[in-house]
Predict the structure of Gephyrin.
Amino acid sequence: MVKAVAVITISDTCFKDNSKDTSGPALADYVRELFPEANLHTIIIPDEKEIIERELKYFCDTNLDLVLTTGGTGLTPRDVTPEATKAIIQREVPGITTAITLASLKKTPMAQLSRAVAGVREKTLIINFPGSKKAVTECFEVVKPILPHAISLIHNEVVEVSYIHNSMQFNHTCKHSSNVDISKVALRPRESPFPMVEMSEAWKMVDDVMSEWTERLEIVTIEEGLGRVVAQTLHAKEPMPPFPASVKDGYACLSIDGAGVRRVRTAVTAGDAPTAPLCAGECARVNTGAALPAGADCVVQVEDTKLVSASEDGQTELEVEILKAPEPQQDVRNVGFDIPMGTVLVDKGQILDSAKIGILAGAGYQNVTVRVPPKVALLSTGNELQEPSEVKLKPAHIRDSNRTMLRMLLKEHGYDSIDCGIARDSPPEIVAGIAAALKLADVLVCTGGVSMGEKDLLKPVLLKDFNATLHFGRVRMKPGKPCTFATCEFEGKKKYIFALPGNPVSAYVCALVFVVRALRRGECARAAWPRLRVRLAHGAQLDARPEYARAALELHADRDMPYATMLGSQCSSRLLSACGANILLELPAATPSLQRLPAGAIVPALVTGRLDIYS
Ligand SMILES: Nc1nc2c(c(=O)[nH]1)N[C@H]1C(S)=C(S)[C@@H](COP(=O)(O)OP(=O)(O)OC[C@H]3O[C@@H](n4cnc5c(N)ncnc54)[C@H](O)[C@@H]3O)O[C@H]1N2
Ligand code: MOO
Ligand SMILES: [Mg+2]
C-alpha cells in the first residue's frame, strides 16, 4: 500500500510567489486520484542544488513511497534538479525517463531538451517531471500504470511474501545447503556448551546490542501515530485559547466597577467575535468558551447576578445586578492559559497517546514524524508441526500454535510481523527458513530446536551457516532456559535473532521479557515493563531457577496491596497458564533455606498485560 507521497515544486519563481505554481497542484491532484489513501506532502523550493538534495533526502529518510518533482529539468544554468537527484539516488531507473521522453516526443520535439532522472533511494522512488502543467499532465499519464507495481517491488514485501506463501508454501526446501553435520548423533555433546547466563546479564547483552539499532523515520498522520514513538519535538504554533475566553456562563464585566447594577450592552456566545470594547458600568452576557469583549477583565457567573430590567418581550436583559464584587481575571482563561505559544506539545522520544494526538489536532498538526520499528519475521521449526488450519492431525503431530500466539502477542504490543511459516528439523530447511526470514526482516523470532536433542539444530545452523555471534544460548530462567540471542550479517545488513524454546509458554515468556523489550528498546530506548510489588494470594513452590509465573492481578478495596493469583499449573507446555495473565511474577530461585513462599508474601511482578483483564 502506498502510504506517503511528496510533490516538490522546484522553481525560483514559484518559491518567491507560490501562486505562480500550477504544475505542483496539478501533480498533487493526480497523486490524490491515484493514491487516495496516501498522505500527501507538497512543498515549493528554489532551484538550489543543496536545498533540493536536502529535501529529497529528508523525504527518503522518512520512508516516503514516492517523491515527484516538477521543474528544473531543462537547460538553463539554474536547472539543477537532475544533478541533485542523481547525487542522492542509489539506483537509477532509466526506463521511466525513456518512456516519458518517447511519449513526449510524439507531442513536441522540445522533449529532447529534458534531462529528467528517475531513481530509488532506500525505499523511495523519485521521478523528475518538467515544470509546466501540460508537461506534468502528459508525463504522469505515462508513469501512472507502473507506479503501484514499482513501489511494491521497491518495498519487496508483496512480492517476497507472496513468493514464500505461493511457491514455497511454507516449505523451506529450496536448494540450500548446510555446514551442519548431523550424521554423528551418538557423539553429540552430552552437556550444553553454552554457559548459563543470569537474567540481568542477558538483558544487558540484548540492550547493548539493540542500542546500535539505527533509527529510521517516517511521516504519518497524527492518527496513524497512535502508540508510535515521535522523532521530532513539536511546539504550539499558537496559544490556546487564542483569545481571552469565559470559563462560565454569565456576564463579562470590568472588575473595577465592583458590585452593583450594570447595563447589558451585548451578548457573546461561543464562536461570536466580540465587537466594540465594554465601557465602565457595562457588561456583556457571555457563554462558557465565548471570547471576552475588549475592556472586560472578569466574568461573573449567572448564579451571582439578579435581573434588574428586561426588554418588554423578555428576550434581552437590559440591566443586571452583580451581587458580589468580582476579582480581576475571575473566571477568565487568558490567551495561552492552557497552552502558551511555543509550549512543547510532544517531545522527541515520547509515545503518542490519545491526549497527545488530541493536542496535536487542536494545534493544527496533521502529520508527525515517527520512528520506524524494526521489521520482525516469525518462523516455527519442528517436524511435528502442522499448519493450524489443518483439520486432521497426522500421527504424533501437533498444530503450530507458537507462530499465531507470537504474531498476536507482538500485535498486542504494537508490532507487526511477517509470517515465514514452518521449517522442518533439517539443516538445509532451517537455513532456507532463516534466509527467507532475514531477507524480509531485521529481527527474526523463531521457536523450537534450541535445546539438547539431536533435532535441536538452530544453534549449530546459526553458528555454522550464518556465521552468527551467539550472545547467549542459555539463561537461568524458568521457563525459557535454552533461549538464544544471536546476531549475524546477512546480505550486508546486521540481523537480530531471538531463537526461543519451542515449548509454548517458554516462547510466550521469552517473547515478552526479551523480544518485546528489545523492540521497545530499539524503538525508543525505553525498558518495556513496569514493575509492581504484589502479594501472593496463595503459597508458591520455588524452582532451582528464578521463575516467571503467569498470574492475574486483583485489586481489593479492603486490602493494602494488589493480590496475584497464579493461573494453574506452570508447566512450560501449558499455554492455558498464560490465558488472562496480566503480570509475570518474578519468583526467586529456591535456596536451601527457602523452598516455598507463603500466601501473603510480597514479590515483584512485571506488568505485561492490560490491568483490566481478569482471568
Ligand atoms: N536433555 C534436555 N532436554 C531438554 C532440556 C535440557 O536442558 N536438557 N531443556 C528443556 C527445556 S527447559 C525446554 S524449554 C525445551 C526446549 O525445547 P526446544 O527449544 O528444543 O524445542 P523443541 O524441542 O522443538 O520443542 C519443545 C516442545 O515444544 C513443542 N513445540 C515446538 N514448536 C511448537 C509450536 N510452534 N507450536 C506448539 N508447540 C511447539 C514441541 O512439540 C515440544 O513438545 O527442551 C527441554 N528439553
Ligand atoms: O525452560 Mo523450559 O522453557 O522450562 O520449559
Ligand atoms: Mg528440543
